[in-house]
Amino acid sequence: xxxxxxxxxxxxxxxxxxxxxxxxxxxxxxxxxxxxxxxxxxxxxxxxxxxxxxxxxxxxxxxxxxxxxxxxxxxxxxxxxxxxxxxxxxxxxxxxxxxxxxxxxxxxxxxxxxxxxxxxxxxxxxxxxxxxxxxxxxxxxxxxxxxxxxxxxxxxxxxxxxxxxxxxxxxxxxxxxxxxxxxxxxxxxxxxxxxxxxxxxxxxxxxxxxxxxxxxxxxxxxxxxxxxxxxxxxxxxxxxxxxxxxx
Length: 247
Hints:
alpha/beta, 8 helices, single chain, 12 strands, 2 domains, 4-stranded parallel sheet, 247 residues
């Protein structure tokens, strides 16, 4: 490009998206004179899902603005907790985030997930059709224009991923109300009604059960309950009242 030159600053939280020479507090960027500011920011590696605001010469500006020579541009991060207007807060996770999806469901968060890769176009179309926030570590996927909303998941560790999503979006938490396998809602189940789905040892040892209203999977407080309880307790202790910040 050999058009107007602008001075651009990425917020510290966004600099890791850019190549090293663009991570300085201010960097000169030569534009083509016709591309929007949103396109310029994305060309530096920053998904617009992570941008909370754009200041041009100190004034809030839309992503559709075409930057002119000598302008200074400040790219701000998303403000947390982030408001997602227009639909109930619910998520769609790509194929690489299965553990995160199960943990969100454990906490009662609506988290759709496909164990088979339906491809970027399919994920973006589902995000738009169902108005779900797409969670991904794929920057290219988050740049697709048909997305309804999206967010980059910054860590590859499930514990940190969960804290990242809960801290960013402050969803309502209702532990033990969703099926971790299919995302359906759970209902209390009488032992006799689920008896045929239980092994003999389980029938003898446990008396309290829940069943998914969609896939009919049966749940009880088995051998893994202590580990799951620790995940729930940690999330509720840190984020249980986070939704109030959006009120």
